Amino acid sequence: MRLERFSVELARPLGTAAGTIESRTGFLVRTDEGTGLGEATPLPGWTESLAECREALEAGNPDGSASSDHVRWPDEQRSSTPAARHGYSLARADAAARESGQRLCDALAADAGRPVPAAESVPVNATVGDGSVAETRDAVRDAVAEGYDCVKLKVGARAPNADETRLRAARDAAGDSVELRADANGAWDQETAERMLDTAAELDYSYVEQPLPAEKASEHAALRGRGVGVALDESLATTTVSAVLDADAADVLVCKPMALGGPDRTLAAVRRARDAGADAVVTTTIDAVVARVGAAHVAAAIPDVPACGLATGSMLSSDLASDPAPVSEGKLRVPEGPGLGTGLESLYRP
Ligand SMILES: O=C(O)CCC(=O)c1ccccc1C(=O)O
Ligand SMILES: [Mg+2]
Protein backbone atom coordinates (compact mmCIF):
# COMPACT_ATOMS: atom_id res chain seq x y z
CA MET A 1 0.00 0.00 0.00
CA ARG A 2 1.11 3.57 -0.69
CA LEU A 3 0.33 6.40 1.71
CA GLU A 4 -0.18 10.10 1.24
CA ARG A 5 -0.74 12.35 4.23
CA PHE A 6 -3.45 15.02 3.96
CA SER A 7 -5.25 17.61 6.08
CA VAL A 8 -8.69 19.08 5.46
CA GLU A 9 -10.32 21.98 7.28
CA LEU A 10 -13.84 22.42 8.55
CA ALA A 11 -15.54 25.56 7.26
CA ARG A 12 -17.23 25.94 10.62
CA PRO A 13 -15.74 24.06 13.59
CA LEU A 14 -18.12 21.40 14.98
CA GLY A 15 -18.76 22.03 18.67
CA THR A 16 -19.37 18.88 20.72
CA ALA A 17 -19.30 17.94 24.40
CA ALA A 18 -16.03 16.13 23.65
CA GLY A 19 -14.37 19.22 22.18
CA THR A 20 -14.39 21.17 18.93
CA ILE A 21 -13.35 19.55 15.66
CA GLU A 22 -11.59 22.08 13.42
CA SER A 23 -9.59 19.99 10.97
CA ARG A 24 -8.94 16.37 10.08
CA THR A 25 -5.59 14.83 9.22
CA GLY A 26 -5.07 11.37 7.84
CA PHE A 27 -3.67 9.24 5.06
CA LEU A 28 -4.94 8.47 1.62
CA VAL A 29 -4.19 4.78 1.04
CA ARG A 30 -3.61 3.34 -2.44
CA THR A 31 -3.11 -0.29 -3.30
CA ASP A 32 0.31 -0.98 -4.84
CA GLU A 33 -1.24 -1.38 -8.28
CA GLY A 34 -3.15 1.89 -7.86
CA THR A 35 -6.48 0.14 -8.40
CA GLY A 36 -7.99 0.69 -4.95
CA LEU A 37 -8.44 3.73 -2.71
CA GLY A 38 -8.80 3.88 1.03
CA GLU A 39 -8.51 6.50 3.75
CA ALA A 40 -7.23 6.34 7.31
CA THR A 41 -8.28 9.45 9.25
CA PRO A 42 -7.89 8.77 12.97
CA LEU A 43 -9.84 10.63 15.64
CA PRO A 44 -8.66 9.97 19.21
CA GLY A 45 -11.63 9.05 21.38
CA TRP A 46 -12.82 6.78 18.56
CA THR A 47 -9.56 5.48 17.07
CA GLU A 48 -5.80 5.36 17.56
CA SER A 49 -3.72 8.56 17.35
CA LEU A 50 -2.27 9.87 14.08
CA ALA A 51 1.19 8.57 15.07
CA GLU A 52 -0.15 5.10 15.91
CA CYS A 53 -2.11 5.06 12.68
CA ARG A 54 0.93 5.93 10.61
CA GLU A 55 3.01 3.32 12.39
CA ALA A 56 0.43 0.59 11.77
CA LEU A 57 0.04 1.57 8.11
CA GLU A 58 3.79 1.69 7.55
CA ALA A 59 4.29 -1.65 9.27
CA GLY A 60 1.65 -3.14 6.99
CA ASN A 61 -0.01 -4.30 10.18
CA PRO A 62 -3.27 -2.38 10.45
CA ASP A 63 -4.89 -4.82 12.84
CA GLY A 64 -2.34 -4.02 15.50
CA SER A 65 -1.83 -7.77 15.71
CA ALA A 66 1.02 -10.00 14.62
CA SER A 67 -1.10 -11.38 11.77
CA SER A 68 -1.64 -9.41 8.59
CA ASP A 69 -4.49 -11.72 7.68
CA HIS A 70 -7.42 -9.36 8.23
CA VAL A 71 -10.00 -12.02 7.71
CA ARG A 72 -8.81 -13.69 10.87
CA TRP A 73 -9.32 -10.70 13.11
CA PRO A 74 -12.38 -11.84 15.06
CA ASP A 75 -15.50 -9.69 14.90
CA GLU A 76 -15.90 -9.78 18.68
CA GLN A 77 -12.57 -8.07 19.15
CA ARG A 78 -11.65 -4.49 18.57
CA SER A 79 -8.74 -3.59 16.34
CA SER A 80 -6.24 -1.48 18.29
CA THR A 81 -5.68 0.57 15.10
CA PRO A 82 -9.13 0.75 13.49
CA ALA A 83 -8.41 3.80 11.29
CA ALA A 84 -5.35 2.08 9.78
CA ARG A 85 -7.36 -1.08 9.25
CA HIS A 86 -10.13 0.98 7.66
CA GLY A 87 -7.64 2.45 5.18
CA TYR A 88 -6.37 -0.95 4.11
CA SER A 89 -9.72 -2.67 4.13
CA LEU A 90 -11.47 0.03 2.08
CA ALA A 91 -8.62 0.13 -0.48
CA ARG A 92 -8.74 -3.66 -0.89
CA ALA A 93 -12.54 -3.73 -1.13
CA ASP A 94 -12.52 -0.91 -3.69
CA ALA A 95 -9.86 -2.67 -5.80
CA ALA A 96 -11.78 -5.96 -5.73
CA ALA A 97 -15.11 -4.32 -6.62
CA ARG A 98 -13.52 -2.38 -9.50
CA GLU A 99 -11.90 -5.53 -10.78
CA SER A 100 -15.24 -7.32 -10.87
CA GLY A 101 -17.06 -4.28 -12.27
CA GLN A 102 -19.36 -4.01 -9.26
CA ARG A 103 -20.38 -0.97 -7.26
CA LEU A 104 -18.69 -1.22 -3.85
CA CYS A 105 -22.09 -1.31 -2.12
CA ASP A 106 -23.18 -4.28 -4.24
CA ALA A 107 -19.92 -6.13 -3.53
CA LEU A 108 -20.23 -5.40 0.20
CA ALA A 109 -23.89 -6.46 0.23
CA ALA A 110 -23.06 -9.72 -1.53
CA ASP A 111 -20.21 -10.45 0.93
CA ALA A 112 -22.52 -9.71 3.88
CA GLY A 113 -25.32 -11.90 2.53
CA ARG A 114 -27.54 -8.85 1.96
CA PRO A 115 -29.81 -8.24 -1.05
CA VAL A 116 -28.13 -7.08 -4.28
CA PRO A 117 -28.47 -4.53 -5.83
CA ALA A 118 -27.90 -2.31 -2.82
CA ALA A 119 -29.70 1.02 -2.52
CA GLU A 120 -29.04 3.95 -4.86
CA SER A 121 -29.43 6.52 -2.11
CA VAL A 122 -29.31 6.65 1.67
CA PRO A 123 -31.41 8.82 4.03
CA VAL A 124 -29.21 11.11 6.09
CA ASN A 125 -29.57 13.40 9.09
CA ALA A 126 -28.36 16.99 9.22
CA THR A 127 -25.81 17.54 12.00
CA VAL A 128 -26.20 20.65 14.15
CA GLY A 129 -23.26 21.44 16.42
CA ASP A 130 -23.30 23.05 19.82
CA GLY A 131 -24.35 26.70 19.66
CA SER A 132 -26.57 29.33 21.23
CA VAL A 133 -30.33 28.91 21.24
CA ALA A 134 -30.62 31.27 18.27
CA GLU A 135 -27.85 29.47 16.34
CA THR A 136 -29.47 26.12 17.09
CA ARG A 137 -32.91 27.27 15.98
CA ASP A 138 -31.52 28.81 12.77
CA ALA A 139 -29.47 25.73 11.92
CA VAL A 140 -32.46 23.42 12.40
CA ARG A 141 -34.65 25.74 10.33
CA ASP A 142 -32.05 25.81 7.52
CA ALA A 143 -31.74 22.01 7.55
CA VAL A 144 -35.50 21.53 7.28
CA ALA A 145 -35.64 24.14 4.49
CA GLU A 146 -32.96 22.12 2.64
CA GLY A 147 -35.23 19.08 2.81
CA TYR A 148 -33.80 17.09 5.73
CA ASP A 149 -36.46 15.15 7.62
CA CYS A 150 -34.03 14.07 10.34
CA VAL A 151 -31.78 16.41 12.35
CA LYS A 152 -29.21 15.52 15.01
CA LEU A 153 -28.34 18.11 17.62
CA LYS A 154 -25.11 18.11 19.61
CA VAL A 155 -25.76 18.58 23.33
CA GLY A 156 -23.79 18.15 26.56
CA ALA A 157 -21.38 21.05 26.08
CA ARG A 158 -23.68 23.37 28.08
CA ALA A 159 -25.51 23.22 31.38
CA PRO A 160 -28.61 20.96 31.34
CA ASN A 161 -30.99 23.97 31.55
CA ALA A 162 -29.42 25.56 28.50
CA ASP A 163 -29.55 22.29 26.55
CA GLU A 164 -33.20 21.79 27.48
CA THR A 165 -33.94 25.20 25.98
CA ARG A 166 -32.03 24.18 22.84
CA LEU A 167 -33.90 20.85 22.62
CA ARG A 168 -37.21 22.78 22.77
CA ALA A 169 -36.05 25.42 20.29
CA ALA A 170 -35.01 22.68 17.87
CA ARG A 171 -38.43 21.02 18.14
CA ASP A 172 -40.19 24.37 17.65
CA ALA A 173 -38.06 25.11 14.57
CA ALA A 174 -38.39 21.60 13.12
CA GLY A 175 -42.14 21.15 13.48
CA ASP A 176 -43.77 17.87 14.42
CA SER A 177 -43.01 15.77 11.36
CA VAL A 178 -39.18 15.96 11.48
CA GLU A 179 -37.25 13.25 13.32
CA LEU A 180 -34.94 14.75 15.96
CA ARG A 181 -31.97 13.13 17.68
CA ALA A 182 -29.52 14.47 20.27
CA ASP A 183 -25.88 13.47 20.83
CA ALA A 184 -24.35 14.14 24.26
CA ASN A 185 -20.96 12.53 23.52
CA GLY A 186 -20.86 10.99 26.99
CA ALA A 187 -21.16 14.27 28.88
CA TRP A 188 -23.78 13.47 31.51
CA ASP A 189 -23.97 11.70 34.85
CA GLN A 190 -26.85 9.34 35.59
CA GLU A 191 -29.13 11.94 37.16
CA THR A 192 -28.62 14.51 34.38
CA ALA A 193 -29.07 11.80 31.76
CA GLU A 194 -32.40 10.71 33.26
CA ARG A 195 -33.64 14.27 33.30
CA MET A 196 -32.47 15.02 29.75
CA LEU A 197 -33.88 11.77 28.36
CA ASP A 198 -37.25 12.58 29.93
CA THR A 199 -37.21 16.01 28.28
CA ALA A 200 -36.17 14.47 24.96
CA ALA A 201 -39.00 11.93 25.25
CA GLU A 202 -41.53 14.67 26.00
CA LEU A 203 -40.35 16.53 22.86
CA ASP A 204 -40.62 13.34 20.78
CA TYR A 205 -36.90 12.92 20.06
CA SER A 206 -36.25 9.48 18.59
CA TYR A 207 -32.98 8.80 20.41
CA VAL A 208 -30.24 10.27 22.53
CA GLU A 209 -26.74 9.24 21.51
CA GLN A 210 -24.12 8.42 24.17
CA PRO A 211 -25.75 10.10 27.20
CA LEU A 212 -23.18 8.61 29.63
CA PRO A 213 -19.44 7.91 29.37
CA ALA A 214 -18.40 5.12 27.02
CA GLU A 215 -17.65 2.39 29.57
CA LYS A 216 -21.04 2.57 31.33
CA ALA A 217 -22.82 -0.43 29.77
CA SER A 218 -25.23 -1.46 32.54
CA GLU A 219 -26.00 2.20 33.30
CA HIS A 220 -27.00 2.76 29.68
CA ALA A 221 -29.15 -0.36 29.81
CA ALA A 222 -30.96 1.17 32.81
CA LEU A 223 -31.66 4.36 30.83
CA ARG A 224 -33.63 2.52 28.15
CA GLY A 225 -37.43 2.44 28.17
CA ARG A 226 -38.02 6.08 29.14
CA GLY A 227 -39.86 6.87 25.92
CA VAL A 228 -36.76 7.75 23.91
CA GLY A 229 -34.11 5.46 22.45
CA VAL A 230 -30.54 5.11 23.68
CA ALA A 231 -27.93 5.04 20.90
CA LEU A 232 -24.30 4.18 21.60
CA ASP A 233 -21.30 5.47 19.66
CA GLU A 234 -18.14 5.96 21.78
CA SER A 235 -19.04 2.78 23.71
CA LEU A 236 -18.46 0.70 20.56
CA ALA A 237 -14.97 2.14 20.12
CA THR A 238 -13.97 2.08 23.79
CA THR A 239 -15.46 -1.30 24.75
CA THR A 240 -16.79 -3.64 22.03
CA VAL A 241 -19.92 -4.27 20.00
CA SER A 242 -20.30 -7.53 21.95
CA ALA A 243 -20.11 -5.79 25.33
CA VAL A 244 -22.81 -3.32 24.28
CA LEU A 245 -25.13 -5.97 22.84
CA ASP A 246 -24.56 -8.46 25.66
CA ALA A 247 -25.50 -5.77 28.21
CA ASP A 248 -28.66 -4.79 26.21
CA ALA A 249 -27.24 -1.30 26.54
CA ALA A 250 -28.57 0.27 23.32
CA ASP A 251 -31.58 0.57 21.06
CA VAL A 252 -29.33 1.77 18.22
CA LEU A 253 -25.64 1.25 17.45
CA VAL A 254 -23.87 4.21 15.85
CA CYS A 255 -21.48 2.48 13.48
CA LYS A 256 -18.53 4.53 12.25
CA PRO A 257 -16.49 2.53 9.73
CA MET A 258 -13.36 4.51 10.70
CA ALA A 259 -13.79 3.52 14.37
CA LEU A 260 -14.86 -0.07 13.74
CA GLY A 261 -11.97 -0.90 11.42
CA GLY A 262 -13.50 -0.83 7.95
CA PRO A 263 -16.53 -1.56 5.79
CA ASP A 264 -16.47 -5.31 6.43
CA ARG A 265 -16.28 -4.91 10.20
CA THR A 266 -19.06 -2.33 10.11
CA LEU A 267 -21.45 -4.58 8.22
CA ALA A 268 -20.64 -7.41 10.63
CA ALA A 269 -21.49 -5.11 13.55
CA VAL A 270 -24.77 -4.08 11.92
CA ARG A 271 -25.72 -7.71 11.38
CA ARG A 272 -24.99 -8.56 15.00
CA ALA A 273 -26.98 -5.53 16.18
CA ARG A 274 -30.01 -6.56 14.16
CA ASP A 275 -29.71 -10.20 15.24
CA ALA A 276 -29.78 -8.93 18.84
CA GLY A 277 -32.89 -6.80 18.23
CA ALA A 278 -31.12 -3.43 18.03
CA ASP A 279 -30.95 -1.18 14.98
CA ALA A 280 -27.89 0.56 13.52
CA VAL A 281 -26.97 3.74 11.67
CA VAL A 282 -23.76 4.47 9.76
CA THR A 283 -21.91 7.74 10.33
CA THR A 284 -18.56 9.34 9.57
CA THR A 285 -15.96 10.78 11.92
CA ILE A 286 -16.05 13.83 9.59
CA ASP A 287 -13.81 12.17 7.08
CA ALA A 288 -12.48 13.28 3.74
CA VAL A 289 -14.25 12.26 0.56
CA VAL A 290 -12.86 8.72 0.18
CA ALA A 291 -13.96 7.49 3.61
CA ARG A 292 -17.21 9.43 3.38
CA VAL A 293 -18.13 7.79 0.08
CA GLY A 294 -16.98 4.45 1.49
CA ALA A 295 -19.35 4.90 4.44
CA ALA A 296 -22.16 5.75 2.02
CA HIS A 297 -21.58 2.43 0.22
CA VAL A 298 -21.67 0.62 3.57
CA ALA A 299 -24.99 2.27 4.46
CA ALA A 300 -26.43 1.47 1.01
CA ALA A 301 -25.74 -2.22 1.64
CA ILE A 302 -28.03 -2.24 4.71
CA PRO A 303 -31.72 -2.84 3.91
CA ASP A 304 -34.04 -0.17 5.36
CA VAL A 305 -31.20 1.68 7.03
CA PRO A 306 -32.45 4.55 9.23
CA ALA A 307 -31.18 8.08 8.51
CA CYS A 308 -27.38 8.02 8.73
CA GLY A 309 -24.86 10.63 9.89
CA LEU A 310 -23.21 10.94 6.49
CA ALA A 311 -24.06 14.53 5.57
CA THR A 312 -20.68 15.76 6.77
CA GLY A 313 -19.02 16.66 3.45
CA SER A 314 -20.52 20.13 3.42
CA MET A 315 -18.81 20.86 6.77
CA LEU A 316 -15.42 20.83 5.04
CA SER A 317 -13.94 23.93 3.40
CA SER A 318 -11.34 21.83 1.58
CA ASP A 319 -11.36 18.21 0.49
CA LEU A 320 -9.34 15.72 -1.57
CA ALA A 321 -11.77 15.96 -4.51
CA SER A 322 -15.13 17.53 -5.17
CA ASP A 323 -17.99 15.60 -3.59
CA PRO A 324 -19.35 12.87 -5.90
CA ALA A 325 -22.09 11.99 -3.38
CA PRO A 326 -24.07 15.16 -2.78
CA VAL A 327 -27.00 15.37 -0.38
CA SER A 328 -30.30 16.64 -1.64
CA GLU A 329 -33.70 16.56 0.08
CA GLY A 330 -32.22 14.62 2.99
CA LYS A 331 -30.84 11.85 0.80
CA LEU A 332 -27.28 11.07 -0.19
CA ARG A 333 -26.93 9.68 -3.72
CA VAL A 334 -24.41 6.83 -3.81
CA PRO A 335 -22.06 7.28 -6.80
CA GLU A 336 -22.57 4.93 -9.74
CA GLY A 337 -19.81 2.98 -11.45
CA PRO A 338 -17.45 0.27 -10.17
CA GLY A 339 -15.89 0.43 -6.72
CA LEU A 340 -16.29 3.75 -4.91
CA GLY A 341 -17.81 5.05 -8.16
CA THR A 342 -17.31 7.87 -10.60
CA GLY A 343 -15.89 11.18 -9.47
CA LEU A 344 -12.75 10.09 -7.63
CA GLU A 345 -10.64 9.17 -10.70
CA SER A 346 -8.02 11.86 -10.02
CA LEU A 347 -7.16 10.29 -6.65
CA TYR A 348 -6.00 6.91 -7.97
CA ARG A 349 -2.84 8.50 -9.38
CA PRO A 350 -0.44 10.06 -6.87
O1 LIG B 1 -23.68 11.55 13.15
C1 LIG B 1 -23.62 12.63 12.55
O2 LIG B 1 -24.62 13.29 12.28
C2 LIG B 1 -22.31 13.17 12.07
C3 LIG B 1 -21.11 12.62 12.72
C4 LIG B 1 -20.87 13.04 14.14
O3 LIG B 1 -21.77 13.52 14.80
C5 LIG B 1 -19.53 12.89 14.68
C6 LIG B 1 -18.47 13.35 13.91
C7 LIG B 1 -17.17 13.26 14.35
C8 LIG B 1 -16.92 12.70 15.57
C9 LIG B 1 -17.97 12.24 16.36
C10 LIG B 1 -19.27 12.32 15.92
C11 LIG B 1 -20.34 11.74 16.80
O4 LIG B 1 -21.30 11.13 16.33
O5 LIG B 1 -20.22 11.81 18.00
MG1 LIG C 1 -21.90 10.40 18.43
TrEMBL record:
Mg(2+) binds at residues 183, 209, 233. Residues 59-90, 319-350 are annotated as: Disordered. Keywords: Lyase, Magnesium, Menaquinone biosynthesis, Metal-binding. Pathway: Quinol/quinone metabolism; menaquinone biosynthesis; Quinol/quinone metabolism; 1,4-dihydroxy-2-naphthoate biosynthesis; 1,4-dihydroxy-2-naphthoate from chorismate: step 4/7. Residues 69-78 have a biased composition (Basic and acidic residues). It is an enzyme of class 4 (lyase). Its EC number is 4.2.1.113. InterPro entries: Enolase-like_C_sf, Enolase-like_N, Enolase_C-like, Mandelate_racemase_C, OSB_synthase_MenC1. The active site is at 154 (proton donor), 256 (proton acceptor). Gene3D superfamilies: Enolase-like C-terminal domain, Enolase-like, N-terminal domain. This is o-succinylbenzoate synthase. It comes from Halopelagius inordinatus.
